[in-house]
Amino acid sequence: MATSQTSRRRFLTGVGAAGTAALLGGCVTSASSGKGSSKGAVTLQSNLSAPQAKAAMEDLVAAYAKKGSGRADLNTVAAETFRTQLPTYLTSANPPDVYTWYPGSVADAYAKKNLLLGLDEVWNSSPDLKRYTKALHSLCTASSGKKVFVPNTYYWWGMFYRKSDFAKWGVSEPTSWDGLLDLCDKLKSRGVTPIGLGAGGNTPWVASAWFDYLDIRINGAQYHRELLAGKHRFDDPEVRKVFDRWREVLPYFDPNGTAVAFQDATTALLNGRSGMMLIGTFFADAAPKSALDDIDFFRFPVIDSKVPLAEEAPVDGYFASARSGRRDQVFHLLKYLATAEAQEIYIKGSSGTVLPCNPDAKDAGTALVKKGRAHVAAAAEITQFFNRDSSDALQPTADTALTRFLAEPKSIGGILTDWQRDAEKIWNA
Amino acid sequence: MAVLTAPERRSPARPPVSGRRARGPRRTPPLVLAFVLVPLLAEALWVFWPALQGFYLALTKWDGVSPPQFVGLDNFREMAHDDVFRSAAGHTVLWLVLFGGLSAVLGLAAALLLQQERRGVGFYRAALFLPVVFSLVATALVWQAIYQPDGVLNRLLDTVGLGSLRHAWLADQDTALYAVIVPALWRQIGYVMVLYLAGLKGIDPVLYEAAKVDGASALQRFRHVTLPQLRGVNAVVLSVIVIDSLRSFDVVWSLTRGGPYHSSELLSTYMYSTAFQSLRLGYGSALAVVIFVLAFGVIASYLVRAFREAD
Predict the structure, then answer these.
(1) Domain count within chain B
(2) A65, A228, A308, B246: which could join A380 in a potential S-S bond, CB 3.0 to 4.6 Å?
(3) B33 and B110 in one domain?
(4) Is residue A409 exposed (0-12), middle (13-18) or buried (19+ Cβ within 10 Å)?
(5) Is the CB of residue B22 less than 8 Å away from at least one CB of chain A?
(6) Could you report the per-residue pLDDT of A8-59, keeping only the tens digit for each?
(7) DSSP-based three-state secondary structure for A190
């Protein structure tokens, strides 16, 4: 028995040593440096797994294949899986070539680690991309000065409501913060929950929209971006001001705001149980067609007129892996994805509430979309959303802080201290 | 998660290795050797190696993208001052006691109740076992609907006149953890019941006869015949409960994600969220190591004691 024990132990040690050696040699944990295959269709890894969006992507890939100059293989992955696997995709030896993802600080974080394919050649040679707005140009440029992203569509956030309900209640869109509070008062006296939230279930991030908007209205977009990048502190007095404002409107929030997911909250909005909601246009994907024409929105009220007007208008699009072996084919596909034709195909196939980045591409043409386009165009600054302006890793710290604030607004001091401590762990990670 | 499954899978691999080697390596037929070595190799590749990697990663700072940076025991030092870790550990202990204790007691009770072969008893057994068949994520979806602010539970309270108890069960920090334990328990009881049913079947009826003849009451028969005879099953149930408690993840994650603000956070959900949401894989691995040590420690110490008694 004794001999068998030692020999087994020795064997295990051997296995362990071999494992550790292989590990240190960098089989799994460090970046391998192989190049992907250079033949065959470009692989397009997509997180657009909602039925309509997925079908729209399939249409798009089919249209590209029809052109005959190149082929793309679409691989749709569930959004949550995609998010957690993206670092693995990008660091693997034989990665997918092109990915749906976000520009700005999220893409830049990968670009800094040399994981993204430089796309200057695409931007310089595509007649379409040259005509994109300046804001998009800078959004798609990494801190190294290289272009790393090709934008596709964008959408906007606003205070959404049903026109017929507002008419029924005899109220109208507010234009100022006090107007918003008045409106809430009126709705409350009519027995309607003034403001729906939907930060429960698996969508606590929706509450960040309120934080973002109050911050860009009170402290401005510049400060907001710096705050999220760790250049200011969450326990600073500027941030405290954001929550002081929020507390003014908090009594009008749906008391179940942190108990129901945004899908349920928007259902309540569409059924007239709540008055309005700060939400992105994606909520309309699930709205019945009959309700779509009845949906309208107003701008989140300006609080300080000295602060340049900023709006949240997240951009979606594509980047490519630096390890892709099909450089030329990738460039060709990305050039196509930047064309008006490609973006129109996508918009036609999807729910049609997104706006194309290509200035020549036609949007869905509804009154809502036209208003949205003007709404974003009027803004001096564009922000993307909390996680896109910082990182997905920082988002849970906001979720924890904001959910707690909604439940215990009085302990805001401690909440902000904790938030800063949690955020530092992420920034220093 | 690989670390978590390691102890379960490792134990069956052990006896063949030591048992066969004991007869002397020279006499071992090559076929037997192949039967031992091939699974061991697969095991080493798929279980030991990732587990060892986990141990190594626990000593590093790693974001999943850049090469990991060796930081020694910093992660464990950070853990000592981490409030969230402390509350998650507390919740895990509470979970172990409530979920483990209740499922063992209720599982045994259900087994005793349903052990007699009567007409229709199969139906009840099947009904209690049914939740085990469902995936926990599906179970969680159903319970999520039950717990909704205008869900079944609140409506039920309204109808019986307890409307004042209406609650956003999963969104309130005081109720979230308990609200999550219930669905987990609902499932586990059926599982434990089946284990105990098998154990009860194995008890020789002669023992009961003899006890009856000696004038033992039903309670005495339970105390002095059933419980001692179930000792072997108890070891299995304890291992299953400890492992299941420490790896309880899916039901919590689907229902609350450890929220609201960490009030239903378990070590397992905290490990997942630090590793895959905050992308602090080094610290996440350190948490996984702690979970592994806890699970392995409890089970190993119990098994050692149980085997010693058996000898």
Answers:
(1) 2
(2) A308
(3) no
(4) middle
(5) yes
(6) 444 444 444 444 444 443 444 444 444 555 667 889 999 887 777 888 889 8
(7) coil
CATH (one of 3.40.640.10, 3.40.190.10, 3.30.1360.170, 3.30.70.600) for A42-154+315-361: 3.40.190.10
Distances (CA, A) of A165 to A169, A286, A297, B160: 6, 19, 13, 34
The residues that bridge with A176 in the sheet, in sequence order, are: A302
Residue A215 confidence class, pLDDT cut points 50, 70, 90: very high
- Provide the 3-class DSSP secondary structure of residue A423: helix
3-state DSSP call for residue A246? Answer: helix
Task: Quote the tokens at residue B125.
Answer: 């057994």
Closest listed residue to residue B302, CA positions, set B231, B229, B244: B231
Q: What is the DSSP string of B177-217?
A: HHHHHHHHHHHHHHHHHHHHHHHHHTS-HHHHHHHHHTT--
Helices (DSSP H) in A68-176: which residue ranges? 79-91, 105-112, 120-125, 127-130, 134-139, 163-169
Q: B45 and B88 share a domain?
A: no
| Residue B257 · residue B273 · CB < 8 Å | yes
pLDDT reported for residue B1: 38
C-beta separation of A389 from A139 below 8 A = no
Tens digit of pLDDT for each residue in B197-232? 888 888 888 888 888 888 888 888 888 888 888 888
Kindly determine whether residue B278 and residue A426, on different chains, have CB atoms separated by under 8 Å.
yes
Within a domain: B69: no
Contacts with A2 (C-beta within 8 Å, 6 or more apart), sequence order: none
Distance CA B17, CA B35 (A): 10
Residue B200 is assigned to a structural domain of this protein = yes
Burial A101-120 (b: 16+ CB within 10 A, else e): bbbbbbbbbbbebebbbbbe
Residue with tokens 């020789």: B204
- Cβ contacts of B261 on chain A, cutoff 8 Å: 400-401, 403-404, 407
User: Among residues A342, A288, A396, which one has the least CA distance to residue A128?
Assistant: A342
* Residues A84 and A392: beta-carbon distance below 8 Å: no
Mean pLDDT along residues A89-94: 85
Establish if B64 belongs to a structural domain: no
The Cα–Cα gap between B196 and B115 comes to: 9
Residue B139 located in a structural domain:
yes
Chain A residues near residue B65 by CB distance under 8 angstroms? 31, 87, 90-91, 110, 113, 115
**Residues B164, B296 within the same domain:** yes
Answering whether pTM is above 0.95, one says: no
Amino acid at B34: A
DSSP helix/strand/coil, A67: helix
B261 → closest Cβ in A23, A395, A404: A404
Would you say domain A157-312+384-427 falls under CATH 3.40.50.970?
Answer: no
- Using DSSP's 3-state secondary structure scheme, residue A193 falls into strand
Find chain A residues with C-beta within 8 A of B62's C-beta: 29
Do B175 and B257 share a domain, yes or no? yes
Local structure of A274: helix, strand or coil: strand
Residues B31 and B127 in one domain: no
Is residue B13 located within the same domain as residue B147? no
Q: Where are the domains of chain A?
A: 42-154+315-361, 157-312+384-427
Give the A window 236-255 contacts with B, CB below 8 Å.
Answer: 255
